[in-house]
């Protein structure tokens, strides 16, 4: 975590605070967590308002005073950054510019995206006159195009350059089509979690040499095992069995249970399996710790609990940060097979496809599932990936092997 967003303040100015009280909800790159008080006191001043995003670690967000002191008489540090301003301290904007402070020229101290800045500069527009619809009154590209389509043409004369002639660039038109309008669209603002996912996926695919290996295994024995658990009123999923089978295979081949760090390989002592869970904000990977030493029933209970709290945004940091091996299962969506992106610094991720019926060489019906291992070629070579998948296949096809229960 490098930055966060304050979703909600749980304490008001002047309110008493005890050790352990939750002060605010903070959205990190993976979950929403509570910031707790380290000592007793009174909330004196909130410096960063709700909804403020991209707050760096160690940024001052509030001030507290000891009990009995006047919370209204508190000195605000001069070094407080621009984002450390509560609503009561915000400058009242002028009627001509309801969301920004005019600075002349293009009229705004607000940061503009490259696309918006290009349109504003090219058409010599005053951004202070453009109605913003983005989060925190941010001007979006659609706002500029809408403003250009409604304002008089004489006001959109492009700025002239002293060194070159600037050509007027307008939205593309379709000749011969009456009443044609620019297609409607909306710029979507990314959450912190989506931003981090995008950055890490790009980093992984551009810096980690991915190698892939695929194997098929029959899971009829696993399906029978599920039925026996159901008779005992215990829920067991195929994914629970995959987690346990992978954990035992990692124990058999510990070099796969490694990470790439600081230009070298680090072999992990414990088998901690990160399980991909889909949430409204994006994928998050809660960890089943020490999976090789847990039984199927305990793994099943752990996964259900972690997945439920992940979707509610209630995971603690240590419950999703770390892990030595990842598993992503899209079988429930009918995906036959796929390749997953490695989550650095881990060296491997296992992609689990759906199960399907197929006739064996003896013309007997059997249930087959496809597994694809994405591995960091710097850590796991092709031969090691192959023997690991063979062990994993044996574990799934023979549930009693290696104490799978």
What does this structure look like?
- The protein has 405 residues and is an alpha+beta fold.
- The chain contains seven helices and 17 strands.
- Helix 5 crosses helix 6 and helix 5 packs across helix 7.
Reconstruct the topology from this structure.
Elements: E1 3-9, E2 16-17, E3 22-27, E4 32-36, E5 41-46, E6 55-56, E7 62-65, H1 114-122, H2 141-150, H3 192-207, E8 210-218, H4 220-231, H5 238-252, E9 258-261, E10 264-267, E11 273-275, E12 277-278, E13 283-284, E14 287-288, H6 296-311, E15 325-329, E16 348-359, E17 365-376, H7 382-397
Parallel strand pairs: 11-15, 15-16
Antiparallel strand pairs: 1-3, 1-6, 2-5, 3-4, 5-7, 8-17, 9-10, 11-14, 12-13, 16-17
Helix/strand class: alpha+beta
Major sheet size, sense and barrel closure: 6 strands, mixed
- Could you give the order of the helices and strands? EEEEEEEHHHEHHEEEEEEHEEEH
Total DSSP E strands: 17
> Whole-number radius of gyration?
28 Å
Query: pLDDT under 50 segments (min length 5)?
Result: 81-109, 154-166
On the 0 to 100 scale, the average pLDDT is 81
Q: What's the number of helices?
A: 7
Q: Please report the distance between the alpha carbons of the first and last residues.
A: 37 Å
Sequence of strands across the biggest β-sheet: 8-17-16-15-11-14
